[in-house]
């Protein structure tokens, strides 16, 4: 049978990674990131959080101005529970959808 767009797709076949190799690679990346964090060699951290129905890119000591009512005074520390992403100069951790 001649190859046509009806007998085979016009795009190249995608080869999925080996799950065992992918797990090893994942463990190595996590080990390196944890090493940077425990050694304090990460520079300035940032996070993307979901808060007050919006996504915010924040760093330590940022002030967020919003229209919603929140039981906190200006300068109070609040707990951000929906963290979507955390990063620094050398790494980025992305949640699926949230980081644990």
Oligomer: single chain
How much strand content do the residues show?
15-25%
What's the average pLDDT?
Answer: 87
**In total, how many domains does the architecture comprise?**
1
Put simply, the count of helices is: 1
Structural class: alpha+beta
Described by the principal axes of the CA atoms, the overall outline is elongated
Helix content: 10-25%
Biggest β-sheet: strands ordered side by side in the sheet: 2-1-3-4
Helix-strand sequence = HEEEE
Largest sheet: 4 strands, antiparallel
Residue stretches low in confidence (pLDDT < 50, at least 5 long) are none
Query: How many beta-strand segments?
Result: 4
Describe the structure.
The chain is of the alpha+beta class and 100 residues long. The protein has one domain. The chain is 21% helix and 20% strand. It has one helix and four strands, in the order H-E-E-E-E. It has a four-stranded antiparallel sheet, with no helix packed on it. Strand 1 and strand 2 form a beta hairpin. The longest helix is centred in the first third of the chain and has 21 residues. The protein is elongated.
């Amino acid at each position: 049978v001649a190859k046509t767009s009806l007998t085979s797709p016009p795009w190249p076949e995608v080869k999925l990674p080996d799950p065992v190799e992918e797990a090893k690679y994942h463990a190595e990346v996590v080990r390196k990131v944890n090493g940077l964090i425990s050694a304090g060699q990460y520079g300035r951290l940032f996070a993307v959080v979901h808060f007050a129905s919006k996504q915010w890119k924040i760093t330590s000591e940022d002030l967020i101005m919003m229209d919603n009512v929140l039981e906190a005074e200006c300068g109070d520390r609040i707990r951000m529970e929906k963290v979507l992403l955390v990063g620094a100069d050398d790494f980025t951790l992305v949640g699926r959808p949230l980081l644990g």
